[in-house]
Amino acid sequence: MTTPPQQHSVWISDPEPVEGAPEGVSTVLVSLVPASSPHVLVRFEYAIRDDREIEGPYGIRVQQHPDSPADEWKPVGVTLVRDLPLTKLERAARMTLTFGMRTPEGAPLNTSVGLYEEPPPFDEIPEHAEKMVRDRHPDVDPEGGPGALRRWKRLIRLAEVQLEYNAAAAQGEKAPATVVAERREVSPATVNTWLHHAKKEGLDAQAVPDFSVVAVAAATEE
Question: Disulfide-capable partner of 168 in 4, 28, 84, 179 (CB 3.0 to 4.6 Å)?
Fold first, then answer.
């Protein structure tokens, strides 16, 4: 008999208007207790636009679960945050938000804005990189002359590097830039420079959600 998987505990806050934001934009907190770490509370902050579309997450907070007895508290530090399956937790939070809130017509919210997409396998990256460049830079024609060809090749390389980084991160690699550097026989610093340029060229939209800056805190009130 197969043991059913443990379930995360997830709940959603009420929408709150955003001061200074355009009309129709509100924020929502999705709080989640990972099944593997019941002493931890992870909160993802999303923006909801016009009661229809989910954007973000724009903020993440990892803290001791407020309901944990003080004598059962465990450290919530960088090591724990690094080892949390944040990508999977974000998917669970987004899915809960998608169906936990409804549009004025009663339909699930639209997740197309800021949606995380699973990166392709390494052997499919060249094909996906070319499609990404064509979608994001339709004005660049590799047959438009030497200058256009150089720019095309540069964009393809940046897209490939970004997708390789995403794939390594999705596989749980602790240093995905190093993985890409080894594949391309360059330094991690060079890879980080390429990633910066990929972002400036708009080629980072399929990236794993950016959890590089995460608030780590002791238990606090809402």
Answer: 179
Instruction: Judge contact between 42 and 34, C-beta under 8 A.
Output: yes
Two tokens, residue 142: 């590799």
**Which residue carries 């059962």 as its tokens?**
72
Question: How many CA atoms, within 13 angstroms, populate the side-chain half-sphere of residue 21?
Answer: 13
Residue 136 host element (H or E)? helix 125-136
Which pTM was predicted? 0.51
Cβ atoms of residues 35 and 7 within 8 Å: yes
Element (H, E) at 53: strand 53-64
Residue type, 105: E
Is residue 51 left, alpha or beta, with left meaning phi > 0 and alpha meaning psi from -120 to 50? left
Sequence-distant (≥ 6) Cβ neighbours of residue 156 within 8 angstroms: 126, 129, 130, 133
Beta strands at 53-64 and 215-217: parallel, antiparallel or unpaired: parallel
pLDDT tens digits for range 14-67: 888 877 777 788 899 999 988 888 888 999 999 888 888 888 888 889 988 888
Q: Read off the amino acid at residue 161.
A: V
Amino acid at 206: Q
